[in-house]
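Task: complex structure prediction.
Instruction: return structure tokens for all chains below.
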Amino acid sequence: MLAYILRRIMIMIPTLLGVTVIVFLMLHATPGDPAELLLGERATTESLEQLREHLGLNKPLHVQYGLFLSRLLKGDLGETIWTRQKVWTEVKQRFPATIELSLVALFISCFAGMILGIISATKQYSLFDYASMIGALAGVSMPIFWLGLVFMLIFSLNLGWLPLSGRLSISVDLEVITNFYILDAILTGNWPAFKDAVWHIIMPAVTLSTIPTAIVARMTRSAMLDVLRQDYIKTAKAKGLSQLKVIFKHALRNAMIPVVTTIGLQFGVLLGGAILTETIFAWPGVGKWMYDAVMQRDYMVIQGGTLFIAGLFVVINLLVDLLYAVINPRISIQ
Amino acid sequence: MGNPKNPYDRHPFFEQIGQLWRNKTAIIGLVIITIFFLVAIFAPLLSPHDPVETSLYDQLKPPVWHETGTWKNILGTDELGRDTLSRIIYGARVSLTVAVVSVGIAFTLGTLLGCISGYYKGFWDSLIMRIMDMILAFPYLLLAIVVVAYLGPSLENAMMAIGITYVPRFARIVRGSVLEECEKDYVMAARAVGARDWRIIFIGILPNCLGPLIVQTTLSMASAILDAAALSFLGLGAQPPTPEWGGMIARSRALILRASWVMTFPGIAILMAVLGFNLLGDGLRDALDPRLRD
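Output:
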């Protein structure tokens, strides 16, 4: 197992390096002077010269990449153009919001997707099965930025049940410790803030979870159907075990293996979808921040944000692979 | 493509076409896609108005079934008085073009790289597959957003960005199939009689990998339409006044309370077009490639 973990980490390193190469080259593939691109139009000749010196723009490309990488390893992602803040500081401030949103969305999609899939599989070809599979197909085909706006229109503007946007109402005070608002509210025992934060996260999280829920539901259904056809399930039923026991104790455990892989793959969908969802719901996370940067042509932020999200994605994929090996020991032996 | 092993076998292609006809999902998908293609081709004949013509007196007209709606603008108008129905009809052209062009780029590049990888193996295989891994290290949509952010927002750049991000899907499928086929006797026989590499690859091997490729192409078209609409929604794809569904939704955000119809119909158009390709892709997968069934 340890050898497997080490091997997986070794495989991750070239991928991470590849990400830095792509991000590095993208700036240089863009027409125009990289220094001017990074500092914006208002930059003075002096500051441009300073940045060229700092980035080593007069040196050969591979030397520049070396400098880029060494700055990266020191945690130096540069400064933003507009706010003159360290990019890394801003990332640290914003990413709890994104993680909080993604985790809640992931929880919703696991829960709803697996339940839909299990019921569909046990009642194959029933009305429920058809309805939920048509729903799942519509979910996979859903433009979530549109769905988010439709939710806003219905649940917030027309019915007034849920807040329109943001993470917390202005009137609510919350002592921020971890920047995960729901967690902070629990830690400080601040129940009004807890309720407010949960109310705010429902719409964006449900929107973000649409596609993963549909994918998990489809995967769970087909994995369950595969397992339910096998002999040992017949044996379990013949022994006189109850339907619930057969499904949850015998079938689900084996059906989980492909489902866990699918759930792991959904992180990419969530992190990418976060850019759309956060933009619609004014959710102050990394996604909205990146969108604003793209609009303002703040290439330092785009560069830093991309490195951060892609790096996070690679690490999450590694964790999912390791988790997969724990669930299915055959993997690590091969 | 060499002699079949058993002369009594019917070519599997006919078997698969038969299965496809019996598959209801595939047929529904095919019908939806055909409608969208027909709408796109005959857009000038079908649309009641010019999609970019503004009209000062027809701003924010509701659809015909509202009390104040008229038959002149069946699905209402936007804030500049442009006819929503006409813009949706012309939008089909944009979305289908994006789907065909970006998936075309991914298909061509991916198939070529996959063939080189699977056939020559060794150094080229490792190099190409590592590059594919790098592209896959970016979560969905992020790479496309970043590429367009650097190249500048336009429909062409959006198509290219989506195309690039889809290359690994095709490269991986083709590589896998080519690796598998290379082990078979007919490839060895072709090599023995001195056939050139490109002939073995394109005439011998590739036709045998078509099933999964067709499935991937159809499903990729669905996601290409979705991604292009998302890019346009973020202001990175088609630029105004191009009638594009994602862009239409973006501009209608400010009108969400006053005129919800401006936002509703383009979203339904996206959903239906994507659903059509997904239905066909699912059906094709069942018919052509039982291994991939989920």
